[in-house]
Write a structure and sequence with these properties.
The chain has 275 residues and is α/β, with parallel strands linked by helices. The protein is 31% helix and 30% strand. It folds into two domains: 4-90, Translation factors (Elongation Factor Tu (Ef-tu), domain 3, Beta Barrel); 101-257, Rossmann fold, CATH 3.40.50. It is globular and about 55 Å long. The protein binds FE2/S2 (inorganic) cluster (FES). The site of FE2/S2 (inorganic) cluster has 12 residues, from loops.
Length: 275
């Protein structure tokens, strides 16, 4: 169960793609939904939105950045190894319909989550403009895949090594100034989704973001994933992970994401000294 059939390294080995055998999940999964994975029986439960699903092969694909102990444990798994548990599909699927022009904005590994949504928007008959941002050209992922499902693809890098030298919001502002946009979908680091939502608010353009709070059970029981949306408490695992970007309390989300930073650093150091 949950055997890794394919493992690919990107961005100098800092980003990993795993294709995992999970036929029951693949059968039901829709764009925007996520799974919770454990590397071993005592491992942390890590939520990751599926980057792809192959119903015929019965596989799901996840793409993650190696940042701490748990993702290092994930990265230590090779082709043929198995995750001890994968639960899903969880969360609400993306609402996809024909609206006109949709701008899909991806930052870092958020592009992996954005790709199936972009494909859905494209297949629904929307005119899709995609903007993919990263710190430098080596961290741009799925460029060709995004190109295939977009009418236009714009690249932005912080250091100017590829595409526009600047932020995704610089590119997005030009688009919003020059044409009518029905919806913006932004997925990436919290500061990026916050900046995109602040920008689109000025243009009154519907904006959807996908949130990544800490999750434990993934079923609405523990409250770990609570986020404030328009002043109301919501659980990202059952009400999300996608929400109206104009209503999200990004500061609160950021604070909660930092809450276990010291413990995470300690666990990471302990893991490093073990291996
Ligand atoms: Fe426990 Fe959402 S992860 S309520």
């Amino acid at each position: 169960m949950f055997q890794i059939l394919k493992r690919e390294e990107m961005a100098h080995g800092t980003i990993i793609l795993n294709e995992i055998k999970a036929p029951q999940i693949a059968k039901k999964a829709k764009p925007g939904q996520f799974v919770i994975l454990m590397a071993n029986e005592r491992g942390e439960r890590i939520p990751l939105t599926m980057a792809d699903v192959n119903k015929e092969k019965g596989t799901i694909t996840i793409i993650y950045m190696i940042i701490g102990k748990s993702t290092k444990l994930f990265a230590s798994l090779k082709v043929g190894d198995c995750y001890s548990d994968v639960v899903g599909p969880l969360g609400q699927p993306t609402h996809i319909e024909k609206k006109g022009t949709v701008v899909c904005v991806g930052g870092g590994t958020g592009t992996a989550v954005l790709h199936p949504i972009t494909r859905g928007m494209y297949q629904a008959g929307n005119r899709v403009i995609s903007i993919v941002g990263a710190r430098n050209k080596d961290y741009i992922i799925l460029e060709q895949e995004m190109e295939k499902v977009s009418h236009e693809l714009k690249i932005c890098t912080d250091d100017g090594s590829k595409g526009r030298h600047g932020f995704v919001t610089d590119e997005l502002k030009e688009i919003l100034e020059s044409q009518e946009v029905a919806e913006v979908v932004a997925i990436g680091p919290v500061p990026m989704m916050n900046a995109v939502s602040n920008l689109t608010r000025n243009y009154h353009v519907q904006t959807t973001v996908s949130l990544n709070p800490i999750m434990i059970d993934g079923t609405g029981m523990c409250g770990g994933c609570r986020v404030k949306i328009g002043g109301e408490t919501k659980f990202a695992c059952i009400d999300g992970p996608e929400f109206d970007g104009h209503k999200v309390d990004f500061e609160g989300l950021w604070r909660r994401l930092q809450a276990y930073r010291l413990e995470e650093e300690k666990a990471n150091r302990a893991y490093e000294s073990e291996v």
